[in-house]
Amino acid sequence: MSEPIAKPVSTPRNAAIVGSLSALMPQFAKLIYPVGDATAADYIQRQVTQEFISAGLIFLVPFAVYIISLITSRYIATPEEMEEKRKLKRDLDELQNILDDIRDNPHRYSKEQINEFHKDYAETRKMLASIGRKALRSSTS
Fold first, then answer.
1. What HEC string does the chain produce?
2. Cβ atoms within 10 Å of 62's Cβ, excluding its own
3. Which pTM value belongs to this model?
4. Which tens digits make up the pLDDT trace of 69-101?
5. C-alpha distances out from residue 85 to 42, 65, 92, 135, Å
6. Ramachandran region of residue 11, left (φ > 0), alpha (ψ -120 to 50) or beta?
7. How far apart are CA 71 and CA 127, in angstroms?
8. Taken in order 36, 42, 43, 45, is the CA torsion positive or negative?
9. How far, in Å, CA of 64 to CA of 74, rounded?
10. For residue 2, what pLDDT band results from cuts at 50, 70 and 90?
11. Between the N and C ends of the chain, which has fewer C-beta atoms within 10 Å?
């Protein structure tokens, strides 16, 4: 039961974000719903409402951070992922040029070489496609 609750703050970065945002929530609740004058008749009710808003916001912060981290991991690549993607695209272009040459001049290559280039091309495409999914899996697990 504790696993789904702890899931949104599974990384140190997310824990730091949740902690700092949770610390700011009481101040944010005061900004949204000011208590007002202490002598006013509805002062206690306003104070209770302010505490309720603050508690609700603190409860929602981990889930908001979790959703934001899911979105960013899906659509925003890290520098390492961009570097890997660049290398794989370069390899894919080179393999595509070789396969074009094979198509134009099949007599230059043996059957084993042709099969190896096709296999390398398929593996490179698979690795290129899995970069985003790998990041998504690491952020959700």
1. CHHHHHHHHCCHHHHHHHHHHHHHHHHHHHHHCCCCCCCCCCHHHHHHHHHHHHHHHHHHHHHHHHHHHHHHHHHCCCHHHHHHHHHHHHHHHHHHHHHHHHHHCHHHCCHHHHHHHHHHHHHHHHHHHHHHHHHHHHHHC
2. 21
3. 0.48
4. 778 777 777 778 889 999 999 999 999 999 999
5. 60, 27, 10, 12
6. beta
7. 21
8. negative
9. 15
10. very low
11. N
Tokens of 13: 């970065």
Reading the block at residue 119, the tokens are 């296999």
User: 24 Cβ partners below 8 Å, 6+ apart?
Assistant: none
* Crossing angle for the helix pair 12-32 and 43-75, to the nearest 10 degrees: 140
> Do the Cβ atoms of 11 and 55 come closer than 8 Å?
no
Return the closest-CA partner of residue 73 out of 134, 8, 3, 12: 134
Q: What are the tokens at 24?
A: 């700011």
Six-digit token pair at 99? 């396969």
Do 43 and 101 form a contact (C-beta atoms < 8 A)? no
Query: What is the rounded distance in angstroms from the CA atom of residue 100 to the CA atom of residue 56?
Result: 61
